[in-house]
Predict the structure.
Amino acid sequence: MNKTDIPLLGIVAYSGTGKTTLLKQLIPYLRQRGIRIGLIKHTHHAVDVDTPGKDSFELRKAGADQTMVASSHRWALMTETPQQEAPDLGYLASRFDRSNLDMVLVEGFKHEEMDKIVLHREENGRSLEGLIDSHVIAVASNRLPPLVLESITLLDLNKIDEIGEFIVTWLGNQSK
């Protein structure tokens, strides 16, 4: 297990491979299997989930280091990190309410030390080998490459149920 006490599983790939598209199908599949999922998405762009002109936006811009917006339907915590180069995945995962989750899917963070499923599309022209490290447990591709390593399972990127069942089995093995 990792320092967050909740299983983290990375979905990593080069840009344009379909990480978000896969997750939009995979999350409902796993939820139907009774798995409660958190998600951390890494982006290289500036993120602003607040709306200019709203009180919470104005108060955050006034200098609040952390701003929470809450309603009866949801809440969100925005934390300013101007001096931080890259977010720490362990810290981010520790912010989740672990009592309401079974696992956290992580989109991106490809260099982190966590179990990962690599997505690969041959037509992108990028090397699969560039994404393989000792934490890769599976490769999901639209054109299955030759076996990379014995310890890496090959999955069909177009078969959500195949990838979903692989994750269900993986998650079941995390508590052992």
Notes: The longest helix spans residues 160-174.
